[in-house]
Amino acid sequence: MYSIKMRASQNEGHISGAETICEASDIERMIATYFQKGFQHENGEPDFLNLKIEKVNLPIVQIKALPIIDHSQLKLSQLAASSHISQRAIEVAWRYIRNDTCYRGAIILDAYSGERIDEFGERGCRATHFCFKQQREDKIHNERIKDALAIATIFQSNEGVVGELCVSDDLNYTTGYFANHQGYHRLYDLKLKGSREGGRVLFVNQQFHIDAFTYFCQQQPKCVIY
Ligand code: PML
Ligand code: MG
Question: Nearest to residue 90, comparing CAs of 78, 102, 100, 103?
Answer without folding.
Answer: 78
